[in-house]
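Technical annex, item 7. During the second reporting period the consortium partners agreed on a shared format for inverse folding records so that results from different sites could be compared directly. Each record opens with the tokenized structure and is followed by the designed sequence. A conforming record, contributed by the partner at site C, is shown below for reference.
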């Protein structure tokens, strides 16, 4: 597994092994970043269920301003830290050990790109709760108008539900993996122009 492009292009990343680990394949990663490539530079990235950290690291390599990596596993976070050091991208990164739902409830940070790549066994109801927590904080504390959420699920999983005020703008399938792009809904109807009085 390598960084595709940017300042760390070609660097080989350490991966994790085990039945609960499902790294994003290079094919899927390349497809995702070809879609969001113009959204990355200068943006703040959140990598939930970070695993090896490859999605957030790819974003940093392509010019993201910062990336926060969240995972429950000590082994995962040790791998993220190794990969950040190996790619020399650690100065723009935060690595946090906690579960995704707890992190979203406590963080004060705001994010422009959110990668959500849970294990395939992660329940759809819990996935929908994550999306609702991301979108539902008052005053757009976690997300803004230009935020894009990239969600990976099994093609056999139930369809996720976009939170209120958001839309699933695209779905792409790659073998067993379905990738959803979820963004704030555009304003419904433009306001009617007010006619000036004679």
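Designed sequence (site C submission):
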């Amino acid at each position: 597994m390598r960084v595709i492009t940017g300042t760390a292009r070609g660097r080989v990343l350490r991966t994790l092994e085990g039945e609960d680990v499902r790294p994003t394949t290079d094919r899927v990663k390349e497809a995702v970043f070809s879609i969001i490539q113009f959204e990355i530079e200068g943006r703040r990235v959140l990598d939930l269920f970070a695993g090896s950290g490859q999605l957030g690291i790819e974003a940093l390599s392509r010019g993201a301003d910062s990336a926060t990596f969240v995972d429950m596993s000590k082994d995962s976070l040790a791998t993220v830290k190794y990969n950040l050091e190996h790619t020399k991208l650690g100065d723009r990164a935060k690595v946090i050990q906690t579960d995704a739902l707890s992190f979203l409830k406590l963080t004060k940070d705001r994010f422009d790109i959110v990668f959500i790549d849970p294990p395939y066994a992660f329940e759809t109801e819990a996935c929908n709760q994550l999306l609702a927590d991301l979108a539902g904080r008052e005053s757009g504390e976690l997300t803004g108008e230009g935020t894009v959420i990239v969600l990976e699920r099994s093609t056999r999983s139930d369809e996720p539900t976009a939170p209120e005020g958001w839309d699933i703008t695209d779905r792409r399938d790659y073998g067993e993996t379905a990738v959803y792009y979820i963004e704030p809904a555009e304003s419904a109807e433009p306001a009617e122009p007010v006619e000036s009085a004679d």
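DSSP finds five helices and seven strands in the chain. The longest helix spans residues 74-87. All partners now use this format for quarterly exchanges.
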